Amino acid sequence: MTASANFPYLLALAAFLFSVGALGVLIRRNPIVVFMCIELMLNAVNIVFVSYGRFLNSEEGQVFAFMVIVVAAAEVVVGLALITQVFRVGRELDIDDLDELNE
Amino acid sequence: MTVLGVLPVLAPPPGIDILGLLPEVILAGGFIVLMMLDLVTAPAQRGWLAVVSVVAVAGAFGATVWCWFDAATPRTVYFGAFAYDRFGLFINAIILVSTALVLMITPQYLNRRGLHYGEYYALILGAATGMMLLAGAGSLMVIFLAIELLSIALYILSGFNRTEPRSQEAAMKYLLLGGFASGFLLFGMALIYGETGHTQLTLIAAAITNGGGTVDPLLMAGIALLFVGLAFKISAAPFHTWTPDVYQGAPTSVTTFMSVTTKVAAFAALIRVFSYTFGEPLIYDRWKIIVYFVAIASMVVGNVAALRQTSLKRVLGYSGIAQGGYILIGVVVLTPAATWGSLYYLASYAVANIGAFAVITVMANRGEDLDSYASLRGLAFRRPYVAAAMGLFLLSLGGFPPTAGFFAKFFVFAAAIGAHELPLALWGIGTSAVSVFYYLRVGLLMYTRPQPDEPSYNWSRTSLSGGGVLALTAAGTLVMGIFVTLVLNIAVSAQNGIVLHG
């Protein structure tokens, strides 16, 4: 199959993965799993960028996907450090317990 | 080989134009220098890092002023990725002044909290660099990278109080919701890129115009998702839920910084992308509905929720959501008057909000922030000048003359009426009336004599730099409210100078 024949399936796959990630963020309670779901959303977006880039025959989509990968890596570094620190100041790892800031 | 060939910096290839990024380059340089200086600075000497960072900000401000005169004819640089125009430079100036004011109140606050670590200054400069890049971003890629640069720095800063659970909670909430919003932002960008074939704003605008009368549903979905991502950054309802929590939990000096600068930068991107790239009537009619309702929702939710708060930091958080709603009026309405009205509003909001948060920062003592309503009671009898300044900031946020806030609201509402959007203006005026209740309540509390049996609170003494910041912001609020044309002329010229075609 050619790139353009595959294209609708790729878009559908990306939309499906994005929805799974978004749903996971909304229903999972462990911050590390929530974080993994966010990564899933970003990677779904990468599929969209790369497949559009192939479909349109332009490099911008692939360059954008590389940018997303780099930024996601930086976000993971900060995110995991913060999650570790939350655990260290004496909490269970459950975002429902993070409710001190509420009125 | 010529001399210029040996020094590629002096003879850059066409399209590369370092001048167009001069303020950002200076600030990014300051960021790197501070990271290295932190390694060799003794803990007791860290106050000097604040001095170095203020110098870097002043240098970037000087470059911005120079660029303002140089950018009389706007252009795009770096192959269209970045807009070198007065619109971006106006926003740069607001961001840099706010950053400098925050840096001046920072060392004292951090010392009292035992948090005086050097990376604070580097992170503030890193975040400010991201914001300035966002203000001038001319391509979706730069918008994404700039948002992430400022967000990642702010995630760390909100959790800067490493041993305080509330600060950690704030950072965690900001991180998870921020990442979630980035996902939507990116998906929107991917769809816009796919349907127009470009990531540069000017080329996207041209592709939409050449599209010829049909609206692509995927493109509209992309625009809607992009708006969700940006609405999160300006904390517009219903994407605002993180705001009060993060503002309350983060160290107050960080809250002062992020409550103003993030919003200013994200609004710059919002205006540039929505009002000037997606301004095509056919597209505009669709996204206008979304922004319209988000603007009204922000005004209502922010003002009503603020009535029920008892912590000043949360009140200012909700008031910031409502102010975002007023500025969104300037995005919904496409006239030039709406754009310069929003620019004026952003400047006045920055001055008053920095001042109000600076009061909490300056008064904070070793143990806690003293931002509860109970701790404000009788402030005017012990710190008359601080209370007077606070009153002035609250009047400006509430939109009373003769302060900057009055004219800001006037310009935005007048622009809405001028574009036959009377309902929007009425919603704005109605919700402003509600906001008077909580702004005045704080003011009255400060001027109420405390009961003898109440616990007395230990407000810190105002230092020279802290008092200086309060005096400067108070003067700014009054000057912008009395000599209106001073800033207005600059805002109008910024609106005129926006890059439309690469």
TrEMBL record, chain A:
Functional summary from the UniProt entry: NDH-1 shuttles electrons from NADH, via FMN and iron-sulfur (Fe-S) centers, to quinones in the respiratory chain. The immediate electron acceptor for the enzyme in this species is believed to be ubiquinone. Couples the redox reaction to proton translocation (for every two electrons transferred, four hydrogen ions are translocated across the cytoplasmic membrane), and thus conserves the redox energy in a proton gradient.
The protein in question is named NADH-quinone oxidoreductase subunit K
Entry keyword Transport: yes
The regions listed as transmembrane in this protein's record are 6-26, 33-52, 64-83
Which InterPro entries does the annotation name?
A: NADH_UbQ_OxRdtase_chain4L/K, NUOK/Mnh_C1-like
Q: Which GO terms describe its molecular function?
A: NADH dehydrogenase (quinone) (non-electrogenic) activity; quinone binding
PANTHER family documented for this protein: NADH DEHYDROGENASE SUBUNIT 4L-RELATED, NADH-UBIQUINONE OXIDOREDUCTASE SUBUNIT ND4L
Q: What class of enzyme is it?
A: translocase
Its lineage opens with: Bacteria, Bacillati, Candidatus Dormiibacterota, Candidatus Dormibacteria, Candidatus Aeolococcales
Q: Its Enzyme Commission number?
A: 7.1.1.-
Report the locations given in the UniProt record: Cell membrane; Membrane
Keywords attached to this Swiss-Prot or TrEMBL record, sorted alphabetically, are: Cell membrane, Membrane, NAD, Oxidoreductase, Quinone, Translocase, Transmembrane, Transmembrane helix, Transport, Ubiquinone
Gene Ontology cellular-component terms for this entry are: NADH dehydrogenase complex; plasma membrane
Annotated GO biological processes are: ATP synthesis coupled electron transport
Q: Name one Pfam family in it.
A: Oxidored_q2
Q: Which reaction does it catalyse?
A: a quinone + NADH + 5 H(+)(in) = a quinol + NAD(+) + 4 H(+)(out)
The entry describes its oligomerization and partners as: NDH-1 is composed of 14 different subunits. Subunits NuoA, H, J, K, L, M, N constitute the membrane sector of the complex.
Automatic annotation (TrEMBL), chain B:
List the catalysed reactions.
Answer: a quinone + NADH + 5 H(+)(in) = a quinol + NAD(+) + 4 H(+)(out)
Topology versus the membrane: Multi-pass membrane protein
This protein's GO cellular component annotations are:
endomembrane system; plasma membrane
Taken from the record, one Pfam family name reads Proton_antipo_M
- Please name the GO terms that the record assigns under molecular function: NADH dehydrogenase (quinone) (non-electrogenic) activity; NADH dehydrogenase (ubiquinone) activity; quinone binding
Q: EC? A: 7.1.1.-
Functional summary from the UniProt entry: NDH-1 shuttles electrons from NADH, via FMN and iron-sulfur (Fe-S) centers, to quinones in the respiratory chain. The immediate electron acceptor for the enzyme in this species is believed to be ubiquinone. Couples the redox reaction to proton translocation (for every two electrons transferred, four hydrogen ions are translocated across the cytoplasmic membrane), and thus conserves the redox energy in a proton gradient.
Q: Which family does it belong to?
A: Belongs to the complex I subunit 2 family.
Query: What is the name of this protein?
Result: NADH-quinone oxidoreductase subunit N
* Lineage of source species: Bacteria, Bacillati, Candidatus Dormiibacterota, Candidatus Dormibacteria, Candidatus Aeolococcales
Name of the gene: nuoN
